[in-house]
Amino acid sequence: MKKWLSFLAIPLLSLVLAACGSDAGASEESEEGDKITIGYFPNINHVAGMVAETQDLYTETLPDGTEVEYQYFPDGSSFMTAIETGDIQGGLVGPGPAMNHFTSGAKINVVAAGSTGGTVIMAREGAGVDSPEDLAGKTFVSPRVGCTHDVQFETMMKEEYGLTSDRIGGEMKHVTGKPATYASLFETGNVDVATVPEPWASSIEAQGSGEVLVDTPDVAYGETLPAAVFVTSQKLVDEDPELVESIVGAHKKATDFINENPEEAKQIAIDKIKDITDQELSKEVIDNAWERINFTYDVQEEHLQEFANSSYDLEFLKEKPDLTGLVDTSFIEE
């Protein structure tokens, strides 16, 4: 557990480094090829990061002698701060944080996808919620305000059921919390509905504290939106495209490994999630979650733009976003 908790200090450290003007030093280190650092989250949409680390795939594509390190992040904001300060050179993050930071002026590029799918809307047993129409006056939880899963849920509720959150004067009460805690929130009755990334939806199912209200294909952008994207800085793309090509090459190898060796990849996910979070997920949970996810590195800018437009419509963004220049597919093209 100490390993996981240590990464909670990353946002503060990043702010200190930014104030000290450390961006140039971090970039110089990556340009020399001496060391790169890759980041990802301990959830199932980021299995490509776990596989690349466990199989040591970056050493196969990077210049000889390059040292590879990994950092694990609790949320998208701290990840994006680390990208912007140069503390990490690339890695996997949800599309929401990537787009939000880009529209705020961050010089970043999405160079690949990590996966699609994996968002599930769960209802607490005994909450009196049999369909989304029942959510007026109910409380829902998402990982963060305006995160990928939050926008997917609120887009669906607004467009299909005419319900919005109290954040914009609506009838649904919104709270935030870490997905790993949702089962306990259901058990205590503190929330009625959760917008849940896998594997935590399958974990809730297995524990019996909640049931599926809306499955992945029927959530807004459920099968088209990347659930994770691979991000690096525009500076690195401009100044060292060969290094970025090597980094993306390892990510592509990891994705191919997942699709060609699903059982081995599942075990890697179980082991790494336990290693990082001290939570052990059963094979049953991982098997169930796997069915809701497509592991791919292909990414299309129009899908991200549609999602960003929804973020604006829901008032998560103050200005209508233009994502032109965010996506660079040159590194995944054959």
Automatic annotation (TrEMBL):
Naming one, the record's GO cellular component terms include: periplasmic space
* Predominant location: membrane
Keyword terms: Cell inner membrane, Cell membrane, Membrane, Signal, Transport
Q: Does the keyword Cell inner membrane apply?
A: yes
One protein family per Pfam? NMT1_2
Signal peptide residue numbers: 1-18
**Compartmental location:** Cell inner membrane; Periplasm
User: Which Gene3D superfamilies does the record cross-reference, listed alphabetically?
Assistant: Periplasmic binding protein-like II
Alphabetical list of CDD domains matching this protein: PBP2_NrtA_CpmA_like
SUPFAM superfamilies of this UniProt entry? Periplasmic binding protein-like II (SSF53850)
Asked if the keyword Cell cycle belongs to this entry, the reply reads: no
Q: Name one GO molecular function term.
A: ATPase-coupled transmembrane transporter activity
Q: Which PANTHER family match?
A: ALIPHATIC SULFONATES-BINDING PROTEIN-RELATED, TAURINE-BINDING PERIPLASMIC PROTEIN
Similarity comment text for this entry: Belongs to the bacterial solute-binding protein SsuA/TauA family.
The protein, known as = NitT/TauT family transport system substrate-binding protein
